[in-house]
Design goal:
Elements (H helix, E strand, L loop, with lengths): L9 H12 L3 H14 L4 E7 L5 E6 L6 H6 L27 H7 L2 E7 L6 E7 L2 E8 L4 E7 L6 H5 L4 H18 L4 E6 L2 E6 L4 H9 L7 E7 L4 E7 L11 E5 L2 E3 L2 H10 L12 E6 L5 E2 L10 E2 L2 H18 L69 H12 L34 E3 L3 E6 L2 E6 H19 L4 E11 L2 H9 L1 H7 L2 E6 L2 E8 L6 H13 L8 H15 L9 H11 L15 E5 H7 L2
Parallel strand pairs: 1-7, 11-13
Antiparallel strand pairs: 1-2, 2-6, 3-4, 3-6, 4-5, 7-8, 9-10, 10-13, 11-12, 14-15, 16-17, 17-18, 18-22, 19-21, 20-21
Helix pairs in contact: 1-4, 2-6, 8-9, 11-13, 11-15, 11-16, 14-15
C-alpha cells in the first residue's frame, strides 16, 4: 500500500495558519497594534483604506528592528517574547506565538520599514504571499512602518466572504478602541480614506474614555477601585440612568488585555440588580490586574478568552466592588432614611428635658345622670331639642316616583337571533389572505396580549404586538420607498448625544429616516438635532427608537439599498408597535384587525413569526364532546 500522508508545502501551511490568525481586516489591525505596543511605542498611527481591503498601515516610534530581526519576523514561530514552555504561564506581552507577520504575509502584500535607535539606516522588506521579493537598506524614522496591501489577494473565496465596508470598518474601530482603552498612556491616531476618525492624546483613563465615546460620557462615569491579595480592580461603570439596550460599551481588561467573559459580566449585572430599566444593560470599563501565573490566555486563537484559577473569588470581589462604588457615590439606595426636619428638636431646647404632661380627671362625673352638676368656672354647652313633629310629610310621594323611575329604566333582552355575524353582502377584498371580511363583529382582548374576533367559520386569535409590527412594517417600507411620509415639526428641537461611531451609523441611515418622517438640523460635536418626527411618534419616544435602531444595526450594518431600507423598517416597526400587556380599546382593536388583513402578508410578522391563528367551529365542537 502506497503512503498517503505527506507534508504540506510551506505556502499551503502558511495559508492554513493564516486562517486562524487573519479572519478579517480587523484581525490584522489587532495583531499589528499589539506588536507596536510590545515594541514600546509612545505614538501609534493607523491608516486604513477601503475598510482594510486595500491598505492597513501601522506607523509607530518603537524600538524598531535590525536587518536580521526584520527578516526573521516573517518566519513562522519566530518570536522574542518566549524562550521555553514555562514562559507561556508568565506572559506580560501581547503577542508571543510568532505567527502574526508570517500569517499576514501569506495572504497579502506586505511592506516593512524599520530602524532601531542608534543606526543611521533602516531596513525595507517586501513580501508577497510568503515570498520575500526585496530587502534593502532605506532611510526611515526610528520605529516601524508596516503596510498590508490587497488582503486575501491569493484567496479569492476568502475575500468574497468579507462583509460590506461598513461592517468591516465597524470591526476595525472596535479593535482600535479596545487597544486604545487598554493603553491610555499611548497617543493613538486613526485615519480612514484620508479622513481622521480618532486623535487620542496620551493621558489618564477617563480622558481616553471621553476621547473615544464623546464629551457627554464624562458625566456618566462612576469610579471603581479595590485592591486585594488576589486581584486589583479599577476603572469606571456607567450610571444606571444612562444604560443602553446595546452591549457596545462593555469592556473587561485583564493585565491590559481585552477579554470577553460572560461569567464576569454576570457579576457586574448582579451588582446593578434592581437599578437598570427594563431590558437595559450595564456599561462599564473595568480593569483587573492578577498574577500572570494564575491565568491561561492561550486557550483561544484570538486571545479574547482566558481561564482563571479561581473564578468564584473574582466573581464575588467584582460584584462587591461595583456595588460598593454605586452605593458610595449615591447611585444605589442605602439604608439611610430621609427624616422630616420639622420634627428635629429646636436648638434652644436641645439641653432641656421634656416635662411630663399633667392630666386632671373629674372623679365625680356621672354620665348616667340627667343633669351633670357643672364645675366651677366651666361653661357647659347648651343643646336645643330638635323639632320632630310632622316628619312623615317629608317623604310623601317619594316612593311612587322611585317605582316609576325604576320601571322606566328596565330593558328586556331581545329574543331575535342573528343568523350571520357579518352583513350578507360582505366578502373579503381582493388580495386579502384567507378570505377574511372586514371586522364588524365584537372584538375582545385576552390577557392584554391577544385580540380575539369572530369569522363565519369560527374565531381568530391575533397576537397584537406581532400584528402591529406587520402593519407598521409595510407602511414604513412604503413611505421610505416612495418618500411620502408626513412629519410634525417640533417647537423646540430635540438635541441627542451619541458617540462618533453611533453618529456615523445614523448619518448612513439619514436618508431613510427622513423618508419615514424624521427631520434633522445640525449634526456636529457628537450631537444630533432632531427638528421633526413622524406623526405616529411622540417626542419622548424618539431617543428610545433611535437607540433600538442602533442596537439592531450595530453589528451587521446592511449595504446601501433595499436591505438597509428593510432593516430600518423592521427596527422602527418593532419599536413603535403596541407592546404585550398594553390595554386596547374597542376602536383600536377593530382598527388593528382590519389593518392586519389589509396587508400583503398578514400571516407573519417582519421577523417571520405567526401573527394569528384560527379556530374553526368544528374544532370548538370537538372540544366539548
Amino acid at each position: 500500500m502506497a503512503d498517503i500522508i505527506k507534508l504540506l508545502p510551506d505556502h499551503v501551511a502558511n495559508q492554513i495558519a493564516a486562517g486562524e490568525v487573519v479572519q478579517r481586516p480587523a484581525s490584522v489591525v489587532k495583531e499589528l497594534l499589539e506588536n507596536s505596543i510590545d515594541a514600546g511605542a509612545s505614538t501609534i498611527k493607523l491608516i486604513v483604506k477601503d475598510a482594510g481591503k486595500t491598505l492597513i498601515q501601522i506607523i509607530d516610534d518603537g524600538k524598531g528592528m535590525t536587518d536580521t530581526d526584520a527578516r526573521m519576523s516573517f518566519e513562522r514561530h519566530a518570536t522574542s517574547k518566549i524562550t521555553n514552555a514555562d514562559d507561556l504561564f508568565n506572559l506580560t506581552t501581547k503577542g508571543f506565538r510568532g505567527e502574526a507577520l508570517a500569517s499576514i504575509a501569506a495572504v497579502a502584500h506586505v511592506e516593512l520599514k524599520t530602524r532601531p535607535e542608534g543606526q543611521d539606516l533602516g531596513s525595507q522588506i517586501t513580501v508577497e504571499g510568503s515570498k520575500v521579493i526585496q530587502q534593502e537598506p532605506c532611510a526611515t524614522p526610528k520605529g516601524t512602518s508596516l503596510a498590508v496591501k490587497n488582503l486575501f489577494f491569493n484567496i479569492p473565496a476568502r475575500r468574497n466572504f468579507l462583509k460590506s465596508n461598513n461592517v468591516e470598518m465597524r470591526h476595525i474601530i472596535d479593535e482600535f478602541q479596545r487597544v486604545a482603552l487598554a493603553h491610555p498612556d499611548i497617543a493613538m491616531q486613526m485615519y480612514h480614506n484620508d479622513g481622521e476618525l480618532f486623535h487620542l492624546s496620551s493621558g489618564k483613563l477617563k480622558q481616553r474614555i471621553v476621547g473615544i465615546f464623546g464629551g457627554k460620557t464624562n458625566e456618566k462615569l462612576v469610579p471603581v477601585k479595590e485592591e486585594t491579595d488576589i486581584v486589583k480592580i479599577s476603572g469606571y461603570v456607567v450610571k444606571p440612568e444612562f444604560a443602553k439596550k446595546t452591549r457596545g460599551e462593555q469592556f473587561f481588561f485583564v493585565n491590559n488585555r481585552f477579554i470577553k467573559s460572560a461569567y464576569l459580566n454576570h457579576a457586574v449585572s448582579a451588582a446593578f440588580d434592581g437599578l437598570l430599566p427594563d431590558r437595559a444593560r450595564s456599561s462599564y470599563f473595568l480593569y483587573l490586574e492578577v498574577d500572570p501565573g494564575s491565568i491561561d490566555i492561550n486557550i483561544h486563537p484570538t486571545k479574547t478568552e482566558i481561564k482563571f484559577d479561581d473564578e468564584h473569588s473574582l466573581y464575588a470581589m467584582l460584584r462587591s466592588t461595583v456595588k460598593h462604588s454605586l452605593g458610595q457615590f449615591n447611585i444605589a439606595p442605602v439604608l439611610d432614611f430621609d427624616r422630616d426636619r420639622s420634627l428635629d428638636t429646636p436648638y434652644n431646647y436641645k439641653d432641656k428635658f421634656a416635662a411630663a404632661p399633667q392630666i386632671k380627671v373629674d372623679r365625680t362625673f356621672n354620665p348616667f345622670e340627667n343633669v351633670a352638676p357643672p364645675k366651677k368656672g366651666v361653661q357647659m354647652p347648651h343643646f336645643e331639642k330638635p323639632q320632630t313633629e310632622g316628619w312623615e310629610q317629608l317623604y310623601e310621594g317619594l316612593q311612587k316616583e322611585n317605582i316609576q323611575a325604576e320601571g322606566s329604566k328596565l330593558t328586556y333582552e331581545s329574543e331575535q337571533v342573528t343568523g350571520d355575524l357579518f352583513k350578507s353582502g360582505d366578502t373579503a377584498p381582493a388580495g386579502r389572505a384567507g378570505g377574511f371580511a372586514k371586522a364588524e363583529a365584537t372584538t375582545y382582548q385576552l390577557q392584554n396580549k391577544y385580540v380575539v374576533t369572530t369569522i363565519k367559520s369560527g374565531m381568530v386569535i391575533i397576537h397584537q404586538h406581532r400584528a402591529h409590527q406587520r402593519v407598521l412594517y409595510e407602511e414604513l417600507l412604503k413611505n421610505i420607498t416612495l418618500a411620502s411620509s408626513v412629519s410634525q415639526q417640533l417647537l423646540f428641537p430635540l438635541v441627542l448625544s451619541y458617540s462618533p461611531s453611533e453618529l456615523g451609523l445614523l448619518l448612513q441611515l439619514k436618508e431613510g429616516l427622513e423618508n419615514t418622517g424624521f427631520l434633522f438640523g445640525s449634526i456636529k460635536d457628537e450631537t444630533l438635532e432632531v427638528t421633526g418626527i413622524p406623526t405616529a411618534l411622540t417626542e419622548a419616544e424618539v431617543p428610545i427608537i433611535l437607540e433600538q435602531l442602533l442596537s439592531d444595526l450595530e453589528n451587521e450594518v446592511p449595504d446601501v439599498g433595499f436591505s438597509q431600507t428593510d432593516a430600518l423598517a423592521k427596527s422602527m416597526a418593532k419599536s413603535i408597535a403596541v407592546k404585550t400587556g398594553e390595554r386596547l380599546d374597542e376602536t383600536s382593536r377593530e382598527h388593528l384587525v382590519n389593518s392586519l388583513f389589509a396587508c400583503k402578508e398578514p400571516s407573519f410578522s417582519p421577523s417571520n413569526r405567526t401573527t394569528f391563528i384560527t379556530i374553526t367551529s368544528d374544532e370548538l365542537e370537538r372540544k366539548f364532546q
